Amino acid sequence: MKPAQITVIRDGLFTSRRLTADITETAPTAQRLVKEHFGRRPLTAVEVVVTSTNRIAMLATMAQGAAAGLKPEAWERKSLTLTSRPHDLYSVAVIAPNNVVRILVNATRLRRRQREIGATLVWAFVEVDQLCRKGAWDHRIALTRHELGATVLPRHKARALYRIEVAWEAEAAKATGEIVGTVIRQNRQAEAAADREAQQTAPAPS
After folding, report:
1. How far is residue 117's CA from residue 26's CA, in Å, rounded to a whole number?
2. How far apart, in whole angstroms, are the C-alpha atoms of residue 65 and residue 76?
3. Among 85, 100, 93, which residue's Cα sits nearest to residue 124?
4. Which residues contact 168 (CB under 8 A, 6 or more apart)?
5. Which residues, 6+ apart, have CB-to-CB distance to 12 below 8 Å?
6. What is the pTM of this model?
7. Tens-place pLDDT, residues 28-43
8. Is 80's pLDDT higher than 50?
9. Parallel, antiparallel, or unpaired: how do β-strands 91-96 and 100-106 relate?
10. How far apart are CA 142 and CA 153, in angstroms?
11. What would you report as the CA-atom Rg of the chain, rounded to the nearest whole angstrom?
12. 3-state class of 91 per DSSP?
């Protein structure tokens, strides 16, 4: 089965071209690792938008608002709890129109943490996997419409939706740690094997 399509978009004139190129190169591997980890479902089409701290909240609200069937006036000058602390975000996965999941990558933060590109994208594709699950799309639409004031839910129903989001975040943290840990162990084993082979094939000292 072919992997889902990934499109990488650079948003903003001051977004690093080098960082965008590194993300473009790394994203397919991150997607594959997540798919192998869960061993299930093909992922939907994914758009990776490399943007800035100042734009990430606005882009998230636009994407989810449109996916929820709301008009622009419903989401203008509003934000979602997903991006309530944009300076702390490395990335966030949001639903978008046409059954697309959009990963918004905070280039402002990753530019200072270049070594964390792989882990950031693994986490992001875990979130994509979560949004591909049965009922997840309807869940995110309901939460978006609630937060933007289009369909305000009773308190107990809203709390239930937020509990799901918290559980997803905990799962993403655990899965990312497991995936990255496995990759590090495999790399160390490969390096050790290469060292042993080099020692065995090295000429004996005269």
Report:
1. 8
2. 10
3. 93
4. 127, 130
5. 51, 52, 55, 107
6. 0.89
7. 999 999 999 998 766 6
8. yes
9. antiparallel
10. 8
11. 20
12. strand
